[in-house]
Amino acid sequence: MFRSIFAVAALSLAASPALAADGGQLFNMQCKMCHTGGPMGPSLTGVAGAKIASKEFNYSPALKGKSGTWTDANLDAFLKAPAQFAPGTRMMVSVPSEENRAAIIAYLKTLK
Ligand code: HEC
pTM of this prediction? Predict the structure, then answer.
């Protein structure tokens, strides 16, 4: 019960600029070092809503083999447990906190 209320609150917050700003800070600390579009990780510009593994990048067969797009739910599942979402993925970093995932996803949507 409490959990579902929290999930709704987190989702409605996902559109808030303050949340995206928090997400930007988390992104700079936890993600940016790899996600500059270099050999360490694909660029995440426009990733929200994009087809999974569709950038110029040498993806793992695991991620390349996923169909679908980066919906909020898919981003959330991937960031929560990358190896569960795409067993064999080369992204090892996870974000255990539901709140932090919501903030990061809100920020990813601003990367256009
Ligand atoms: C140590 C380097 C590294 C860090 C840190 C990292 N990633 Fe990744 N990320 C990768 C790699 C490598 C891939 C491609 C994985 C594959 O091909 O299996 C990836 C893939 C992704 C994708 C899918 C991109 C696509 O084009 O389909 C998303 C979304 C993503 N990462 C988000 C994040 C977020 C958000 C963070 C911070 C919480 C983060 N990553 C931190 C290396 C990293």
Answer: 0.89
